[in-house]
Design goal:
The protein is α+β, with helices and mostly antiparallel strands. It has one domain: 4-Layer Sandwich (Metallo-beta-lactamase, Chain A), CATH 3.60.15.10. Helix content is 28%, strand content 28%. It is built from eight helices and 16 strands. The chain has an eight-stranded mixed beta sheet, sandwiched between helices. The protein has a six-stranded mixed beta sheet with strand order 9-10-11-12-15-16, with no helix packed on it. The longest helix is centred in the first third of the chain and has 18 residues. The protein is globular, with a radius of gyration of 17 Å. The N and C termini lie far apart (46 Å). The structure holds zinc ion (2 copies). One zinc ion binds next to helix 3.
Length: 258
């Protein structure tokens, strides 16, 4: 009875999440995640716990590309969801090497043979050859990451091999934009055909407002703000962040008010 009630509460939460945005169709939801179709060839996959985090799935000629890879324990669900969609997962692009965005990459690469793309400056944090708390930057962020490292958490499981990318590089239909500050190798991803921008943790859209994302986990806030200003010239009409809902409309105007 208790379990049933709990599931019901979670399902109501999922429905509220989905109802927030009238532009998307629900594909399916679960106690741990929701899969939403945003546009043809674009899905939002939300894992709820411990904090809601997004993966974005894009269909191109070769198959699926996933932007970000959620937490390490989300890998089995991602494999199941990709099978349900019925299109092979060929590429994962990591916006930055934090464990809530890169966590399942190692498992997915090993099991599905998916290629993992990450900016060259975040490569060491993905392969276990470097640790972010040893970087220059905001003392609080470094302290939290340092404690997490000692406890064996807050570091993504190491990927055997990654494809290092740099600013302006093209991966399939997408362009990499180096947008550092949150981490040294944070990237945003521009999908020109859809005028859509994936911004990782640089901006979050929640409670109907755009905000600078995760300042307490950001190594260099000033650099992050400079990176966000670069978005304006792209004139996106869809902003897709690492946490929160999709933002439709005048992204450049909304960024100007941040
Ligand atoms: Zn982050
Ligand atoms: Zn995050």
């Amino acid at each position: 009875m208790g379990k049933h009630a709990n599931n019901q509460t979670r399902n109501e939460f999922a429905q509220k999440l989905m109802a927030r945005d009238k532009n998307k169709d629900q594909l399916g939801y679960h106690t741990r995640y929701a899969l939403l179709k945003i546009r043809p060839g674009l899905w939002q996959l939300i894992f709820y716990l411990p904090v809601p985090v997004n993966c974005w799935l894009i269909q191109d000629k070769e198959g699926l590309t996933m932007i970000d890879a959620a937490q390490p324990w989300n890998a089995p669900d991602i494999i199941k969801i990709v099978k349900a969609i019925g299109i092979p997962l060929r590429k994962i692009i990591i916006t930055h090497a934090h464990p809530d965005h890169a966590g399942a990459a190692a498992h997915l690469a090993a099991e599905l043979g998916t290629k993992v793309f990450v900016h060259e400056l975040d490569v060491p944090f993905m392969t276990g050859q470097g640790f972010m708390h040893q970087e220059q930057g905001f003392w609080l962020t470094r302290s939290v990451l340092g404690v997490g490292h000692k406890l064996g958490i807050l570091t993504p499981p190491a990927v055997d091999s990654v494809e290092a990318v740099c600013d302006r590089e093209v991966v399939g239909d997408l362009q990499i934009i180096h947008s550092p500050g949150h981490t040294p190798g944070s990237v945003s991803i521009w999908w020109d055909e859809q005028r859509a921008l994936f911004c990782g943790d640089n901006i979050v859209y929640s409670f109907r407002s755009l905000r600078i994302g995760s300042p307490w986990f950001t190594l260099d806030l000033n650099r992050q703000r400079e990176s966000i200003r670069k978005y304006v010239e792209l004139k996106p009409n869809l902003l897709l962040s690492g946490h929160g809902s999709a933002f439709y409309g005048d992204v450049a105007g909304a960024i100007g008010r941040l």
